[in-house]
Amino acid sequence: MNASSTPRLLLALTLTGALGACSVLEEGKVDYKSAKPASTLEVPPDLTQLNKDSRYVLQSTSATASGFMSAAAQVKDAGTATNTMGDVSMQRNGQQRYLVVQRPADKLWEPLRKFWADSGFVLTTDSAELGILETDWAENRAKLPQDFIRKTLGKVLDSLYSTGERDRFRTRVERTSTGVEIYVSHRRMVEEYADQQKERTIWMPGATDPELEIEFLRRMMVQLGASPEQAKAAAGSSAGTSAPAAAQVSMQQGQPVIALSDDLERTWRRVGVALDRTGFTVEDRDRQKGIYFVRYVSGTGQEQPGFFARLFGAKKTEGPVLNKYRIAVSSQGAGSLVQVLNEQGQAESADNAGKILKILAPEIR
Questions:
Q1: Per-residue pLDDT for the chain (365 aa), expressed as one digit of tens each?
Q2: Distance between CA atoms of 189 and 271, rounded to whole angstroms?
């Protein structure tokens, strides 16, 4: 929606009345079928995926250099709750959920592709090498009111309606010695007025929805062979757990860090999902060494700097600037530590490291 579409939206609202509240987690309340392959959401470039450039991928020098391309040690976590359906299980770590599938990763890639296509999405990132699938931005049309006029006229007036929200989902596949772990993360953009006259709108980052992530994991279980009843029971029994303590940024030896009481495996999972939710591009990951290789773009050259550009104080430049970091997860006593390193693996400046960790902290749930 832009300024030119405002009269159409006002007409739609006049015809239908105020939008009713919808729970997207009820059956039939998630509907991305109307997503158009040719449609592109205009958002700051630093919130979109860049094409993968092999120059920035860590080249493996051993059989265990990459956390996805080779099998890591088998996960043993007594604190994780599990709901198993055949060779598919939903596991719980606080508020976080993920699937464990006892199959080779190459046997899952096509079913996962089909799952997102059947769910109404277009994939913008499809990298079996990195174990990442990411959808384009799409609108959940199930949030629109199903009033008498819309039901009667159907698609005749459908283009007049807009939720003012767009969703994107990232699927990350991590190999283990016995199968794979599958994570689904959600990002949202919300349309807001850019001026007091309400003549122009812009898209801004919105809150992520962990319940929506669980819903898609449940549906993914069905795609991978569980019955709808089994998947619903697994997702239902995972609900209602207490959230882990909120992550906090603190200082240790002059460097900003996030200290967590979780062990290394559980912290690795939480940080990975937080990176996915906040839109960092994960170029590679080394699970054994506890390192995520990430990048983001700042200095977009736009009149209005993008999300990360504003955060890091970047000014208008001739073109986008690629920034690369390493997010390191390490053990510290009975807990673990999260810190930011530069591209060479040295401690990043305290100012930049603190800003990055403040982005991640709210999403480390």
A1: 444 444 444 444 433 333 333 434 455 567 885 445 444 444 444 433 433 333 223 333 333 334 444 433 333 343 455 555 568 989 887 778 999 999 988 899 999 999 999 999 999 999 998 899 999 999 887 777 665 555 555 555 555 567 789 999 999 999 887 789 999 999 999 988 888 888 888 888 898 898 899 999 999 999 998 888 888 888 776 554 555 566 899 999 999 999 999 889 889 999 999 999 988 888 899 988 999 999 866 543 333 334 444 445 545 445 556 789 999 999 999 899 999 999 999 999 999 999 999 999 998 87
A2: 21
Cα 79 to Cα 75, 82, 94, 102, 266, distances in angstroms? 11, 10, 9, 20, 9
User: DSSP secondary-structure letter at 79?
Assistant: T
Q: Which amino acid is at 155?
A: K
**Where are the chain's structural domains?**
1-53+61-243, 244-365
Report the distance separating Cα 66 and Cα 273, nearest Å.
18
**pTM reported for the whole predicted model:** 0.70
CA distances from 39 to 48, 124, 144 (A): 14, 12, 19
CATH classification for the domain delimited by 244-365, as one of 3.30.70.2740, 3.30.310.170, 3.30.420.140, 3.40.50.2000: 3.30.310.170
Question: 249: exposed, middle or buried (C-beta count within 10 Å: 0-12, 13-18, 19+)?
Answer: middle
The whole-angstrom separation of Cα 93 and Cα 290 is 18
Q: Please, what CATH class does the domain formed by 1-53+61-243 belong to? A: alpha beta
Reported as type and span, the H/E element at residue 126 is strand 123-127
